[in-house]
Amino acid sequence: MADKKRMRSRYNNRIFKKSSDIQTDASATKTVLARAVLTVSALTAWGSTAVAGQTTLAQNRPTVSLHPATEQPADTQPGATQNDDFSFSKLFDGQRTLGTSGLSSLEGSSGGGIASWATIGGYGSKKAMGLAVHYSYVNVTNYTDQNFGALMGFYDRVELSYSHNFFQTGGTGAKLGIGRGYQFDLDTGGIKVRLLGHVLDKTLMPQIAVGAMYKHDGDSKVIHAVGSKHTDGADVYIAMTKLFPKIGLLVDTTMRLTKGNQWGILGFGGDRNDNYYPQFEGSLGYLPSFIPGLVVGVEYRTKPRNQNFTPESNWFDVYASYFVNKHLNITAAYVSLGTIATYRTQTGAYVSLQTGF
Question: Which of 31, 101, 138, 281 is the most exposed place for a label (fewest CB within 10 A)?
């Protein structure tokens, strides 16, 4: 215990200095939350209206189908005419099966909450585009994180994504010496390309995709003070995802090269290590036939150890996700994130709302 107190004392004295320009911004946090919820709600209502003439509720019932979607040419879909070439329903045809867009990760790409999958976000067929917008909230023992992001899928082949994390220290910021409510900001832009296979076809071949993420942390003074080498960094990964329809089992395995500290919130590289090493991400999901639209599962993600001042732990979660329809997905999870900035046992809740087209 004495060693821990001395470590935190050295950490505070060396790294963080209280200043008048670091103040609590609780009102800004509430504004971000309100805007995000309103945005998701508005997009859900708008999307439902836009596609009302294209597909009936019976055709897109709230269940994750265990059979591949039949992708019709856009000009033969119900409601299409020679005069609607540039309509919303033509551009975002929504022909892929419910659930094949995946969930939304904290880094913006389609996948689970803490793992990237090989899925391409949105519901666009091979002849159209897809769109998804999400808002996520994580509350653990000493910190909270709000995440807002969007992605575009192109022809069920390429995905472009963006997300912004608002990582808030709350009362822990004062204990660390950086000011109560201090907020870290992380921007992430990503690209993913499906190489081969499909998550829901009838073969044993998984859907395989490669991806890359570029991340920028806006807190350079604090980032360098804690021993991180860079405020910008890049991750690359390869993911394999497959759904086995007969038993309702979803399996994902992802290998990521990264040197991000706490996925980039605390910068990249460190005084202990500044090289890329592979990290594992895995997900298992079960689709119970007696509750159509529900997916329950677990995720696990290993983390690099780049800094001497604080250990970094592997992540774990248990989640339940319900697809109300293609335009609304609700996810809740228990998360265990281990040690973050010398504070151990960071456990709590994760909630995410996603709308898709």
Answer: 31
